[in-house]
Design brief:
The complex is a heterodimer of chains A (about 375) and B (about 270). The longest helix of chain A is centred in the middle third of the chain and has 18 residues, at about 170-185. Chain A is an alpha+beta fold and about 375 residues long. In chain A, a hairpin with a 2-residue loop joins strand 1 and strand 2. Chain A is globular, with a radius of gyration of 25 Å. Helices cover about 20% and strands about 35% of the residues of chain A. A six-stranded mixed β-sheet of chain A has the order 6-7-8-3-9-10, sandwiched between helices. Chain A has a six-stranded mixed β-sheet with strand order 13-12-11-15-21-14, with no helix packed on it. In chain A, strands 16-20-17-18-19 form a five-stranded antiparallel β-sheet, with no helix packed on it. In chain B, helix 8 (about 170-200) runs antiparallel to helix 11 (about 230-260). Chain B has helices at about 5-30, 45-50, 55-90, 95-100, 110-120, 130-155, 155-165, 170-200, 200-205, 215-220, 230-260. Chain B has about 270 residues and is an all-alpha fold. Chain B contains eleven helices and no strands. Classes of the chains: A alpha+beta (about 375), B mainly alpha (about 270). Chains A and B meet through strand 6 of A and helix 7 and helix 8 of B.
């Protein structure tokens, strides 16, 4: 992935709506063939940023480049991008094939060739034989596919997806996530997805830019984002993270020694240490990085005692809220349910195993 | 509430009051007597024949049709531009401008007609069908704006963006996407402006100069009792014409909804 050429480059992009500063100095690059996500809460500027690529939004200052070309003054209809809209924007007065073939109107190819291209595009999205249907008679998932086929038929350099799955129900959404990944691998086009759903971003993306208030808070691959969130804000937005107060004791040779509540004295690598703590230093850890040791299990090299305060049973998983000895708040732990192993009761004393490598220090 | 007899009686009386006078038109149009009164005295179609041979009436009808068609066309085009501007763009003074466009809807027509007449005479414009058209456009444009604004309001903004995104220019997007989707609104607007113009009296009476208009002609005929049955015959034809126009408007409105897959939220019929 690292050796791929740059497809999109943002250089210090600012956008104002009157007094409102919607984009505050975005600088980032998106590589060719990448599945890239813009993730953030509503109002963070992710859709605005996507629309600056499409050409629907002028930027107040900075540069947006697509495939090495400055897009200043280039209108949306000649940019090498196509978009799948949140509302799908299927033309209601046209049939499915007229919708899909809409972008080919200015294509010099013969009618038969265009018809073939439409059929191929419909087949690619699993709508073979739907061409003559009226667009308004389709279900949500089918509209989504028509919108995809309509955008991909033009073989754009970049496909922009503005919360394309938010209107679908959970099952359909998960299915479409897989199909989008498959489709992206098949066509090799750069996909840029806007979403507020962190799970969706983690599942689908090669890299994710997490945005808050018009700025990119962290840009990383899903695993880094999850395991090494750059700030407490990012950590809170992506998945669940537990925090315990900590105190930095010493720093030497890229190693940081920390006294953390519930864990005692631990030594962390430099890559486990993040900035931007609010209200003092804290160590954070994900629910699955702490494990309850059941009777007869080997003692781990780092373990603590804790009391179970809440039990939430999910079938395949059980969530426990446990309070580590020496701490004053409950931490969430997730345990995969294994056959023959009991679900613990509230009030049980339990050993929990952990590893210093799973901790992240925010200071 | 559902089967309340007083409410049912009220509803029936209300409908009778509304439509009985209109139902009288065809009754007396075929009645073989100059006097408009019961009992009826046999059937005849001679009033229709009289009407058919009335050159003055045809002259007035022709003038009114010219005025109504021109008015409906111009008002609908102006309404299209105003509705598009107000639904799509933000600009300073928008509320005030839209308010001024809609104002003739509630302004007494008498005042409009008088002030137009005074102004036209003062600047030396000769009264003709053109001046009637100008007056009618003024009162019809608010109807067109109201109808077309709702047509534009239900138009998803991203449809337009999708068309740009797929390579179309603003002009071709308007032609390929926006126009077909607001077409039912355009047809409704045209037909309603046509109807408003056709039966408008005050402005037509004030601004037509020497040209006879249908509404003022009909009014004039009531001075001669012998001509009244003929007017009844004309009225019958106009009622049929109105129902036909309304049915056409409704057909296009429903077809528009069916084509775009929208939900029917009531219409004329």
């Amino acid at each position: 992935m690292t050796d791929r050429p740059t497809m999109i480059a943002f250089q210090d992009v600012h956008k104002y709506y009157g007094d409102y500063h919607a984009l505050r100095g975005i600088t980032a690059t998106i590589k060719a063939g990448e599945f890239f996500s813009l993730l953030g809460p509503s109002g963070c500027g992710k859709t605005t940023l996507l629309r600056t690529i499409a050409g629907f939004e002028d930027i107040s200052s900075g540069v947006v480049m697509i495939d090495g070309k400055d897009m200043r003054g280039v209108p949306a209809n000649v940019r090498p991008t196509n978009m799948v809209f949140q509302s799908y924007a299927i033309f209601p007065h046209l049939s499915v094939e007229e919708n899909v073939g809409f972008g080919l109107r200015r294509d010099p190819r013969s009618k038969a060739e265009k018809g073939k291209a439409v059929d191929e595009a419909l087949e690619m999205v699993g709508l073979k034989g739907f061409g003559r249907r009226a667009a308004h008679a389709l279900s949500g998932g089918q509209r989504q596919r028509v919108a995809l086929a309509r955008a991909l038929i033009l073989k754009p350099k970049v496909l922009l997806l503005d919360e394309p799955l938010s209107a679908l129900d959970k099952k359909m959404r998960e299915q479409m996530q897989m199909e989008l990944i498959r489709l992206q691998r098949q066509v090799g086009i750069t996909f840029i997805l806007v979403t507020h759903d962190q799970e969706e971003a983690l599942v689908m993306s090669d890299r994710i830019a997490v945005m808050f208030e018009g700025e990119i808070a962290q840009l990383a691959d899903p695993e880094t984002l999850y395991r090494r969130p750059g700030s407490r804000q990012v950590a809170d937005f992506i998945g669940t993270m537990n925090f315990l107060p900590a105190e930095v004791l010493s720093e030497a040779g890229g190693r940081v020694e920390v006294e953390a509540q519930g864990f005692g004295r631990v030594t962390l690598d430099a890559d486990q240490c993040m900035g931007q703590a609010t209200g003092g230093a804290a160590v954070g850890f994900r629910p699955e990085t702490l494990t309850i040791l059941f009777d007869g299990q080997q003692p781990a090299d780092r373990e603590s005692w804790a009391e179970v305060e809440e039990v939430v049973y999910y079938g395949d998983m059980t969530y426990y809220d446990v309070r580590l000895d020496g701490t004053d708040r409950a931490m969430r732990i997730s345990m995969r349910n294994v056959f023959g192993r009991p679900v613990l009761d509230i009030g049980t004393r339990a050993r929990v195993a952990w590893s210093p490598g799973a901790l992240v220090l925010f200071r | 509430m559902r089967n309340s007899p007083p409410l049912l009686a009220y509803a029936i009386l209300y409908l009778v009051f509304l439509y009985a006078p209109i139902a009288l038109l065809p009754i007396f149009a075929f009645n073989d007597s100059v006097v408009i009164a019961f009992p009826l005295s046999g059937q005849t179609t001679r009033w229709f024949g009289q009407m058919w041979n009335d050159v003055q009436m045809f002259n007035a009808l022709r003038n009114s049709l010219i005025v109504a068609t021109s008015t409906a066309t111009i008002a609908t085009i102006l309404g299209l531009l105003a509705a598009r501007a107000s639904s799509r763009f933000r600009f300073p003074g928008k509320g005030g401008i839209m308010g001024l466009i809609m104002l003739p809807l509630v302004l007494p027509e008498m005042i409009l007609a008088m002030s137009l007449l005074v102004t036209l005479l003062a600047i030396g414009v000769n009264l003709s069908l053109l001046t009637v058209i100008a007056g009618h456009v003024l009162i019809c444009t608010p109807f067109a704006v109201a109808i077309l604004s709702s047509a534009f309001a239900s138009l998803d903004r991203s449809l337009e963006e999708a068309a740009y995104d797929l390579g179309e220019t603003p002009a071709s997007t308007f032609r390929l996407i926006i126009l077909p989707l607001v077409m039912p609104g355009l047809i409704s607007s045209f037909l309603i402006c046509f109807t408003v113009s056709l039966d408008e009296f005050i402005i037509a009476y004030f601004l037509a100069g020497t040209q006879p208009m249908l509404s003022s002609y009909i009014y004039g005929q009531f001075r001669f009792p012998a001509n009244v049955p003929k007017v009844m015959a004309l009225g019958t034809i106009l009622v049929l014409l109105s129902i036909t126009l309304l049915a056409i408007a409704e057909y296009f409105r429903r077809r528009g909804i069916a084509r775009t897959g929208g939900k029917d939220t009531g219409g004329f019929l």
